[in-house]
C-alpha cells in the first residue's frame, strides 16, 4: 500500500476493487458511434458541395477524345450520376462502405481507393508517426526535468524550443535541405528512396528509407518539441505546489521517485489528450512537409486527390483520418483511467 494514500478514498477503492463503469463505457461508445456517423455523413456531402467533380475534371483532361456515353458510364461507376437523387447516392455510399468498398480512384488510374491509401499510408505512419512519438517523449521528459529544477540553467531551453516551434515547417525544412543536404551532403534532399533500388526487406532498401526519412523526422521533431516541453513544464510547476508532493517529500522519499511516480505522472495527464489527437492526425500526414521533401505519404496523396476532385479518394482518406482520431481518443480515455485512479473512482 502506498503510504501517501493511507486514509484516502483511493485506499477504499483499492481495497474494494475497481468497479467496471459500464454506464460510462456505454455512454462513450454511443458518443463515438454518433461522431463517426456525423463525420462520415459530412464526408459524403462536403465534396459534393464543391464546384465540379472528378468526372468533369477527367473529361476536361481528355480534351474531347471521349464520347458523351463514356461520361455517363463514368458517373455511374463513381456514384456521381446526376439523374440519381442525392439521398439515394448517400444510402448507396453507406452500402458500399459497409461492404468495405471505398470505390475507385480516378486520379490514380482507376485503382481501388483502399489500394491507393494502403500504398501511401505506411510512409506517413513511418515518417510522421516516429517524429511525433520522439518529440512527445523527449519533450515530455525534458519538460518534467526543467519543471522539477525550476530556476536552473535548463530553463534557457524553453524559449529556444518555443522559438523553433514558431518557425514554419516548410521554412525549417528548406533550411535543413540547404545546409545538411546541399552544403554538407549528410542526408538526401527528398523522396523515400533512390530510383532503381529494389524494394523489400533487404539491407540496401531499409538503409535508403532510413537515410531519406532522417531529415524530415529531424525537422518535425525540432519544430514540434517546444510545445511538449512548455506544456509539461507548466503542468509540473502547478503539480509541485500540491499537498501530496509536500507530504511525499516530508516522508523522506527519494527525489527521483517523487519526480516520476507522483509529480510527472499527474502532470502528464493533460499531455495525453494532446498526444492522442496528434497520433490521430498522423494519418493525415504533414502535407507541406511531404511536398518539401517529395515524400510519397498520405498528405501528398490527399493534395493530389483534391486537385483532381477525386471524391472517392478524398472520402477514403478522410474516413481513415476520422477513424484514427476516434481510436486515438479511445486510447486516451484508457490511458487516463490507467494513470489517474481518481478517474476510475468517479466513473465507477
TrEMBL record:
The keyword DNA-binding does not apply. The chain crosses the membrane at residues 29-46, 127-148, 169-189, 209-230, 275-296, 316-339. Keywords: Membrane, Transmembrane, Transmembrane helix, Transport. Its main location: membrane. It comes from the Bacteria. Residues 121-332 form the ABC transmembrane type-1 domain. The keyword Transit peptide does not apply. It is a multi-pass membrane protein. It is found in: Cell membrane; Membrane. Gene3D superfamilies: MetI-like. Belongs to the binding-protein-dependent transport system permease family. This is ABC transporter permease.
Amino acid at each position: 500500500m502506498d503510504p501517501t494514500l493511507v486514509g484516502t478514498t483511493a485506499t477504499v477503492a483499492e481495497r474494494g476493487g475497481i468497479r467496471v463503469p459500464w454506464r460510462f463505457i456505454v455512454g462513450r461508445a454511443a458518443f463515438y458511434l454518433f461522431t463517426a456517423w456525423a463525420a462520415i455523413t459530412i464526408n459524403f456531402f462536403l465534396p459534393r458541395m464543391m464546384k465540379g467533380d472528378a468526372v468533369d475534371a477527367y473529361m476536361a483532361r481528355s480534351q474531347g477524345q471521349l464520347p458523351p456515353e463514356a461520361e455517363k458510364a463514368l458517373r455511374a461507376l463513381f456514384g456521381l450520376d446526376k439523374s440519381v437523387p442525392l439521398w439515394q447516392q448517400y444510402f448507396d455510399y453507406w452500402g458500399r462502405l459497409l461492404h468495405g468498398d471505398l470505390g475507385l480512384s480516378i486520379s490514380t488510374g482507376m485503382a481501388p481507393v483502399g489500394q491507393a491509401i494502403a500504398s501511401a499510408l505506411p510512409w506517413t505512419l513511418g515518417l510522421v508517426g516516429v517524429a511525433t512519438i520522439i518529440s512527445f517523449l523527449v519533450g515530455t521528459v525534458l519538460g518534467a526535468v526543467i519543471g522539477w529544477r525550476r530556476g536552473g540553467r535548463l530553463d534557457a531551453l524553453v524559449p529556444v524550443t518555443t522559438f523553433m516551434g514558431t518557425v514554419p515547417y516548410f521554412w525549417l525544412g528548406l533550411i535543413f535541405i540547404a545546409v545538411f543536404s546541399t552544403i554538407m551532403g549528410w542526408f538526401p534532399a527528398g523522396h523515400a528512396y533512390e530510383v532503381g533500388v529494389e524494394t523489400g526487406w533487404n539491407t540496401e532498401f531499409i538503409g535508403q528509407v532510413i537515410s531519406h526519412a532522417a531529415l524530415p523526422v529531424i525537422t518535425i521533431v525540432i519544430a514540434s518539441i517546444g510545445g511538449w516541453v512548455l506544456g509539461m513544464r507548466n503542468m509540473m510547476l502547478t503539480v509541485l505546489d500540491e499537498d501530496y508532493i509536500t507530504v511525499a517529500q516530508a516522508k523522506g522519499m527519494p527525489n527521483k521517485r517523487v519526480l516520476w511516480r507522483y509529480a510527472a505522472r499527474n502532470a502528464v495527464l493533460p499531455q495525453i489528450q494532446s498526444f492522442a489527437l496528434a497520433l490521430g492526425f498522423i494519418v493525415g500526414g504533414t502535407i507541406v512537409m511531404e511536398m518539401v521533401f517529395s515524400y510519397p505519404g498520405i498528405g501528398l496523396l490527399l493534395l493530389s486527390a483534391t486537385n483532381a476532385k477525386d471524391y472517392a479518394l478524398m472520402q477514403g482518406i478522410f474516413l481513415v483520418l476520422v477513424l484514427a482520431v476516434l481510436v486515438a481518443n479511445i486510447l486516451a480515455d484508457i490511458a487516463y483511467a490507467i494513470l489517474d485512479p481518481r478517474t476510475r473512482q468517479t466513473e465507477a
